Amino acid sequence: MIGEVALYGGVAVVLVAALVSGRGARRRARVFEKRYGSYEGFWRQVDGGRVRQVARERGPVAAVKEVRERHPGVSLVMAKRYVDQLAG
């Protein structure tokens, strides 16, 4: 009995977390599209020289953080993609 309650309680927590996470991702996608239009629009607005400097001095993780701090609403995946493309 107690095991079943714990199991169902755990499942409920996971479902609620997934629902909240999905809503946040959709909201970020709408904000991104409204602000930048596309990935190319985002690319044009980022100060590539500054991001390269941060990557050189403090590493790629700091560069991703720099992108996200200066461009709220950009996902971690998008910021990492940008930094990776600058380096490559």
What would you note in describing this structure?
Helix content is 86%, strand content 0%. Helix 3 (48-58) runs antiparallel to helix 4 (60-70). It contains five helices and no strands. With 88 residues, the chain is an all-alpha fold. The chain has helices at 2-36, 39-45, 48-58, 60-70, 76-87.
Oligomer: single chain
What number is the mean pLDDT? 81
Secondary structure tally, helices: 5
How much β-strand is present in the residues? Answer: under 5%
Q: For the CA atoms, what is the radius of gyration?
A: 18 Å
Globally, the shape reads globular
Strands, total number: 0
Report the order of strands and helices: HHHHH
Structural class: mainly alpha
Helix content percent band: over 70%
Q: Separation of termini?
A: 56 Å
Uncertain residue ranges: none
Biggest sheet architecture: none
Summarize the structure.
The chain has 88 residues and is mainly alpha-helical. It contains five helices and no strands.
